[in-house]
Amino acid sequence: MGKHSTKKGRAVKKNKQAKLEEPDELTRAPHSFVIHKGEVGQYVQDLTKDFRRLMEPFTASSLKVRKKNVVKDFVSVAGLLHVSHLVMFTKTDNNAYMRIARLPRGPTLTFKVHSYSLARDVLSLLKKQFVATKHFKHSPLVILNSFSGEGAHIKLMASMFQNMFPAINLAKINLDTVCRSVLFNYNQETKMIDLRHYAIRVVPVGLSKGIKKIVQSKVPNLSKFNDVSEYITKAELLSDSEAEDDPKSHVTLPQKLSSRGNMESSQSAIRLSELGPRMSLQLIKIESGLMEGDVMFHELVTKTQEEIKIINKRKEEKRKLKEQRKRIQEQNKQKKEAEKEELKNKSLEGMKKKQLIDENKKILERVGVEDGDNDEDWYRKEVGEEPDEGLFTQNNNSGRGVKRRKSFTEMKELKKRKLNNGGEKKNSRDDYSRNNRNTNSKFGNSSRDDYSRNNRNSNSKFGNNKNDHKKFKHGDGKFNANRNGMGRNRKNLGSKVTRGRRHV
């Protein structure tokens, strides 16, 4: 039999992307996550979507963020997806903020968004709107203006903006892929950064407006002309675009472009159409870590060296305390694991011991049922020798081997018997008085002698009544049981007696 090969499903066979691996140029290119955090409102959410479109194609365009997601969730998957930057939009009561962080360890730049315009608002202001279809398949061209000032924060800011987009190799670049541009303009006086997003178009120069339409395969309207020559030579149809008026926009093409009329080594003009969004930013803070760490730069707060030392000292103490708590927690965890393991071993030993005892009991019970002998007789029969003295002391005392467990009925009867015995002990004094007292009544064998048996000596001629031993509550206006004393409502007895009844 040959090697067994796993069968692949029809969907896996038809999936071309599963067989292909991404080239190094794509994996090394900087990728980004663009998200918003907290309650930001509908406009900031739309700004987040427009910024994702600006960062295409190396960004997660359809990324869905939940409320319970935190920054660590995005950092954990960043390495697998080759994500290098995180752009996060937040909003307070006063302004919106944008944070740009380098994954996975920082630094983090915090910008204050003074003003912004969405892409739909920018397009609505254009007189002639430009429809970009294939422009977002390639990364934009980054243009940094006036970032050459002094200060480490300016250099760090410029490098962060530049590294968010893939680098361009001038020797191998294809001009057809350069379809968009992103402009970052820094004003050193106001310290504001203006962000603009444009679409790039290349138009041939030196052609009239009618000829351009014919070259670009557009059918002109000739209803107002008698001849085609009038359409071409008429002065009103000459191009009056700003590209032809400004000679600085004219370039010589080193390559042939896919658009009509743009041949190699020919003169063409570059036109820009704004796509949006627009943003006016100000750098507020630079942190060394990912959304945390030492503050390397702050626009609004300045601290002295002494304050910085105190802050660093507090951070060091906090770090040491955190390490100490972590170490103690680890020790407690190991201790609990050891106790748990020890308890488990003891439990297993107890279970084995109990199992062994139960097996021995079953063997002894089976032997006792079969032979009917005690342990000494069984030892003599099996071993053939006399047992040592004291070997079966416990069994010899019982004489019956293993003690049989009582049933529920037997236990209930035994409990009832004990309770009855306790009642007899409780009334032992009355028993003593019954057995050891000598009464003078001539009716000692009658049931009427209960009065004398209960330690009462009375010479009344009515002592033979069987109802005399009943007790009544004191003070209820009836006959009192204390015959020798006088009750509160005691009345004199009459002399008439009929069959043991008293008449007053």
UniProtKB/TrEMBL annotation:
Bias-annotated ranges (Basic residues): 1-17, 488-504
Pfam families referenced in this protein's UniProt entry, alphabetically: Brix
Residue ranges, compositional bias (Polar residues): 255-267
Residue stretches making up the Brix domain: 30-292
Top-level taxonomic group: Eukaryota
Region (Disordered): 1-23, 242-267, 319-344, 383-504
Biased composition (Low complexity): 435-446, 454-465
A GO term, aspect molecular function: rRNA binding
GO CC field: preribosome, large subunit precursor
UniProt biased composition (Basic and acidic residues): 423-434
GO biological process: ribosomal large subunit assembly; rRNA processing
InterPro entries per UniProt: Brix (IPR007109), PPAN-like (IPR045112)
UniProt-recorded name of the protein: Brix domain-containing protein
Taxonomic source organism: Laodelphax striatellus (Small brown planthopper)
